[in-house]
């Protein structure tokens, strides 16, 4: 599970770094959550979470500040949070989360991306039951044994702890995200390699080289859509 998460994040970070689209997506998400609640992360847990995520992707402070100031000023843009479910090559499964100010446009664009890249849209619930909402937190500088000891001392339960290369990745229930992160902050951890609330597939599938190429085209087409914030799937992309 951990290996899959790292591969997806590295691929996405590399792809988005060249287009800067990830910054625009974060700007929109920060604006939405800041507008929905208080524009102060200390009193708005949703905003605090998004800012933690943005930090792991090195989103420039100027973009963060601009989005929060826009929300403070009572920006008139309103966005709907949407979730689409669908299938890719060989019955692979995808979940697509979007923020949009035009539901019809987004639905048409997502459907078109599926249809043009070997996939098809599913109905609500056709895919999501095969995924688990999960908090994923990664850090460096500590072993898995040290991480486990810190969590046990703080009486914080998690699902799994995996040590990979120079980092440790912790998987927990979504409502434990801030508790887990606070344990590590109290232990002197300032930066996290991963800080996400994500949807992880219960079972990964491996595709042939040809199907994987087609699948990655589908994921790229979906991620390139302006309104799409996240794409989750059940494919093991390998090393």
UniProtKB/TrEMBL annotation:
Gene Ontology cellular-component annotations: cytosol
UniProt keyword Oxidoreductase present: no
Residue span, TACO1/YebC-like second and third domain: 79-235
Main location: cytoplasm
BP-aspect Gene Ontology terms: regulation of DNA-templated transcription
All copies of domain TACO1/YebC-like N-terminal, residue ranges: 3-74
Alphabetized UniProt keyword annotations: Cytoplasm, DNA-binding, Transcription, Transcription regulation
Entry-linked InterPro entries: Integrase-like_N, TACO1_YebC-like_2nd/3rd_dom, TACO1_YebC_N, Transcrip_reg_TACO1-like, Transcrip_reg_TACO1-like_dom3, Transcrip_reg_TACO1_YeeN, YebC-like
Subcellular location: Cytoplasm
Any one GO MF annotation of this record: DNA binding
HAMAP family for the chain: Transcrip_reg_TACO1, Transcrip_reg_TACO1_YeeN
Family as reported in the entry's similarity comment: Belongs to the TACO1 family. YeeN subfamily.
Family annotation (NCBIfam families): PRK00110.1, PRK12378.1, YebC/PmpR family DNA-binding transcriptional regulator
Protein name according to UniProt: Probable transcriptional regulatory protein CIB95_09305
């Amino acid at each position: 599970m951990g290996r899959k998460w790292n591969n997806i994040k590295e691929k996405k970070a590399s792809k988005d770094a060249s287009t800067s689209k990830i910054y625009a997506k974060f700007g929109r998400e920060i604006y939405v959550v800041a507008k929905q609640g208080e524009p102060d992360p200390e009193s708005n847990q949703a905003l605090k979470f998004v800012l933690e995520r943005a930090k792991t992707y090195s989103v420039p402070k100027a973009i963060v500040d601009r989005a929060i100031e826009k929300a403070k000023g009572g920006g008139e843009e309103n966005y709907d949070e949407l979730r689409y479910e669908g299938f890719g090559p060989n019955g692979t499964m995808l979940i697509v989360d979007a923020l949009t100010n035009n539901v019809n446009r987004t639905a048409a664009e997502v459907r078109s991306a599926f249809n043009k890249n070997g996939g098809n849209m599913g109905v609500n619930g056709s895919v999501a039951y095969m995924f688990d909402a999960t908090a994923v937190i990664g850090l460096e500088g500590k072993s898995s044994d040290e991480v486990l000891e810190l969590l046990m001392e703080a009486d914080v339960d998690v699902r799994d702890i995996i040590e990979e290369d120079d980092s440790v990745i912790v998987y927990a229930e979504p409502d434990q995200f801030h508790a887990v992160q606070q344990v590590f902050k109290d232990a002197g951890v300032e930066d996290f390699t991963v800080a996400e609330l994500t949807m992880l597939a219960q079972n990964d599938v491996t595709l042939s080289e040809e199907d994987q190429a087609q699948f990655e085209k589908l994921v790229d087409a979906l991620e390139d859509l302006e309104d799409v914030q996240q794409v989750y799937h059940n494919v093991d992309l390998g090393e």
